[in-house]
Design goal:
The structure holds two protein chains of two kinds.
Chain A: E1 4-7, E2 10-13, H1 14-37, H2 42-66, H3 68-73, H4 88-105, H5 110-116, H6 118-135, E3 149-151, E4 154-156, H7 159-177, H8 191-208, E5 216-217, E6 220-221, H9 222-243, E7 249-257, H10 261-275, E8 277-281, E9 284-288, E10 298-308, H11 312-325, E11 339-345, E12 350-352, E13 355-357, H12 361-364, H13 366-375, H14 388-394, E14 401-404
Antiparallel strand pairs in A: 1-2, 3-4, 5-6, 7-10, 7-11, 8-10, 9-10, 9-14, 12-13
Chain B: H1 3-27, E1 50-53, E2 58-60, E3 69-74, H2 79-95, E4 101-106, H3 113-122, E5 128-131, H4 136-140, E6 148-152, E7 158-163, H5 169-183
The chains are: A alpha+beta, B alpha/beta.
Chain lengths: ~425, ~180
């Protein structure tokens, strides 16, 4: 037990230190992760500060409302820095409502945002167990096992160590599956978060058995029951994601060509119409090549929305085959008869085995964003919730892009 | 992974989890006798001690059975302690008639006896100052920092242990309000 950490001349309360450290490290990791996943949104960073402030103020306010008489006698203590005079549950409730309100106002997509904060979630649980370990809270049952620790008048199960070891193993696995927080690890939004939540619930169910003080409902520990419900929800979510296949997946494609572009684009979109249900298409735009190696500096680009029921990888392979039908040579970036890129695939956000959806170029280049803005003016980036207008305003790409009025594209779906 | 494999794995692990939850109270029955073990932690019986006051009168924790007690560990060099102690005096004046007691245990072995007594008497505190000259009680209570406040219910069981500024007037008053209203 070490409730106070002495760092040089400073004596710091371990609970605060571990919680603050785990939140800080978790937030930094999530922040890095969000850049790799394409979910980085500055409104999250600003929002977190607001939420932290709202938490502190409402937790104190909750305590004051609960005990008004005390503060009438000691009004100075309304603004004291003490952490004991906080109503934590009230603080969590108010800041949760604030979080939902802020997320809705900024159109933050739920599942990709949750995936992004998975490192923070795991670190938060590690911090909680470290804090309990430091304070000797949520201690274990007496045991005769050789690894029992002397605490509070008995040799006890080192239950916080059990939890920390399991959480650390899971954290390492998550680092492995995400290739060092560079990928989502799965091709479905929300999968990483759901698996992590399920594993934390399993660890809780397992370790709660060794905890001395339980909150009981009949004979059963309430936290174990909550854990079981969480696992059932997680299994259902994963089942739904894996096997309840959507037959109506909206996919936005970007078509490009720098080799006989006018004809190739028209033929390309006709070919797509033969295979898929095309619901929307933009005009064709004359754009400058962003790849300076290209012999021909001029491209024609267009965005098209199709409806399909194909899994991502099958669709990608089909589109590659169409590109080759038009004479596209893999690896040849100079002569491009037809290029078809998947820009968005439903509202999925993933980065896995070299495939990143939505295509990161969407937020970078006008040749995708501009036609898309014309085709779907209400479009929002599935990973960040940022509107297409704002994406165009934020892009650093200043290349010339002109709409070609004479190209006819009557796709009416 | 096929639908069948997934369902099998999910069901197996759910059954395992459920079995573990059902077996928990059988394999690892909770210890209810916690309140009979003495340890310096919330939920345990407060470790017993007896110490002399500045007037050489011996006060034992036992003497205050049936009363809520705050054991406040302090030293005269600890500025945070001295910031809180006037607050405690205020709360003491309000709740002492109802039976509340404060034992301000001075860690005399880590303090100057004269400085401690001079400070305490100069402030006209009416609660009791006890002298832990050998440091036995501070080690019994596994003290890590000053001030440390240990609040006991009338049954001698520890309700709260607070290190630092947390045991201020507002917090102590609300804790005592709850204690006295529960007792009514």
């Amino acid at each position: 037990m070490f409730p106070i950490l002495e760092i040089g001349p400073l004596a710091i309360q371990s609970v605060g230190f571990f919680l603050l450290m785990s939140i800080t490290v978790g937030f930094l990791l999530s922040s890095k992760f969000s850049e790799k996943l394409g979910t980085y949104n500055e409104s999250i960073e600003n929002g977190l500060l607001i939420i932290f402030g709202v938490f502190l103020i409402s937790a104190r306010l909750g305590y004051i409302l609960q005990n008004p008489a005390t503060f009438i006698e000691n009004p100075g203590q309304i603004i004291s820095l003490s952490t004991t005079t906080l109503n934590i549950s009230f603080g969590i409730l108010v800041s949760a409502i604030t979080t939902v309100t802020l997320a809705q106002r900024n159109h933050l997509p739920l599942l990709p945002t949750l995936d992004t904060f998975t490192p923070l979630l795991i670190l938060l649980f590690i911090g909680l167990h470290l804090a309990n370990l430091a304070n000797g809270d949520a201690f274990g049952l007496p045991t005769q096992l050789p690894w029992g620790v002397e605490l509070w008048g008995a040799k006890r199960h080192p239950v916080q160590i059990y939890a920390l070891v399991l959480l650390a193993c899971y954290f390492l696995w998550m680092i492995y599956i995400t290739k060092g927080l560079k990928q989502t690890g799965f091709m479905q939004s929300g999968m990483l978060f759901t698996i992590s939540t399920g594993v934390i619930a399993m660890i809780t169910i397992f370790t709660r058995a060794f905890v001395s003080e339980r909150i009981l409902l009949g004979m059963v520990d309430i936290l174990q029951l909550i854990g079981l419900i969480v696992i059932i929800v997680c299994y259902y979510f994963i089942y739904h994601k894996l096997f309840h296949l959507n037959k109506h997946i909206e996919v936005i494609l970007s078509l490009g060509s720098n080799d006989n572009p006018q004809s190739n684009l028209i033929k390309g979109s006709e070919r797509l119409q033969e295979i898929y249900k095309v619901t929307q298409a933009s005009s064709v735009y004359r754009t400058q090549a962003v790849n300076t190696h290209s012999e021909s500096q001029e491209y024609f680009n267009q965005t098209i929305e199709i409806i399909t029921d194909l899994p991502f990888s099958t669709l990608r392979n089909q589109l590659k085959a169409i590109e080759q039908e038009f004479g596209r040579e893999p690896g040849n970036k100079d002569v491009v008869p037809l290029d078809i890129d998947i820009i968005t695939y439903s509202d999925q956000v993933f980065s896995y085995q070299g495939n990143q959806i939505p295509d990161p170029d969407l937020a970078k280049y006008r040749y995708i964003a501009q036609p898309l803005a014309e085709m779907a003016p209400n479009f929002r980036h599935p990973a960040t919730g940022i509107s297409i207008k704002k994406l165009i305003a934020q892009t650093k790409d200043n290349s010339q892009i002109t709409k070609i009025e004479e190209v006819d594209n009557e796709f009416t779906g | 992974m096929t639908k069948k494999t997934y369902t099998l794995i999910a069901l197996m692990s759910l059954i395992l989890s459920l079995t573990w939850i059902i077996l928990t109270p059988i394999l690892f029955p909770g210890v209810d006798a916690q309140q009979e073990i003495s340890a310096p932690h919330e939920g345990f019986l407060a470790p017993q001690f007896s110490l002399e006051s500045t007037e050489n009168i011996v006060h034992a924790l036992d003497d205050y059975n049936g009363q809520p007690v705050l054991i406040f560990f302090w030293a005269s060099w600890c500025s945070i302690c001295k910031r809180i102690m006037p607050d405690l005096q205020q709360v003491y004046e309000t709740y002492q008639p109802e039976g509340f007691e404060i034992l301000a245990v001075n860690a005399t072995n880590q303090d100057s006896f004269t400085d401690a007594v001079n400070y305490f008497t100069s402030q006209d505190y009416t609660y009791k100052m006890l002298l832990d000259t050998q440091g036995e009680v501070t080690s019994q209570y596994q003290l890590h920092a000053f001030p440390t406040s240990v609040l006991l219910g009338p049954d001698g069981v520890i309700i709260d242990v607070v290190i630092g500024t947390g045991m201020n007037g507002a917090y102590l008053s609300t804790q005592l309000d709850q204690l006295f209203s529960n007792g009514d």
